[in-house]
Amino acid sequence: MQIPKQTSETFETLSKGQFICSNSSSDSTRRLYDLIDEYYDDLHEYFQGINFILERGDEYFYFSRAESKVDLERKIEAAFKWIDILDFLKTFDNSFGSGFRFTPSDILVKLNIDAELKTKLDGLKKHGGGKERYDEIIEKVLDLLTKDNFIEIENIISNTYKALASFDYLENLVMAINIPEEVKNEIPE
User: Could you say which DSSP state residue 25 is in?
Assistant: First the structure.
């Protein structure tokens, strides 16, 4: 088994629940991605020995672990939050995904002409940390997405963000939810 010297840096990033993406603007993150890609099998085996499962997504890597029932319930709550955020972003622009570039002001402009987007943003108040103004809620949502490494600020001057390859993880999460036909009629609206 051949383990690269940057394994501790990889562990530090992934163990915080973050992603390492191929399309990051950070040179060091892209180098880590290439390194993990090259040594994936060895690193997968190495991290499995300490109860972390190195997972490969479409142009991103992350850790997963076997979860207890309490942890699963917490993760389900987090999934609800991400579903609401993803729904809002796809309403803002249906093509929102890996590589998509936008500014918070783009979202604010669209809020003025799209009642459905405004309704969905109102629904995000519960994830906005008590924020009431639309710009504050958007800022809080973007902070959550940035902290969890789904987007990153690409240009500080123009306040432009870019969706990272890890954004596909959110989309795949929602697509993996399967509600059987016989249960659909039992779910309250």
Answer: S
The pTM for the full model equals: 0.75
Alpha-carbon distance of 171 to 173, in angstroms, equals 5
Q: What is the pLDDT of residue 117?
A: 94
Q: Which helix (H) or strand (E) holds 181?
A: helix 181-184
- Of 178, 33, 19, 151, nearest in space to 96 by CA: 151
The pLDDT of residue 67 is 63
With b for 16 or more beta-carbon neighbours within 10 A and e for fewer, the 83-106 pattern comes to ebbbebbebbeeebebebebebee
Q: Which residues of the chain have pLDDT under 70?
A: 67-72, 128-131, 178-189
First to last CA, the chain: 53
**Sheet containing 53-56: order of strands:** 20-21, 60-64, 53-56
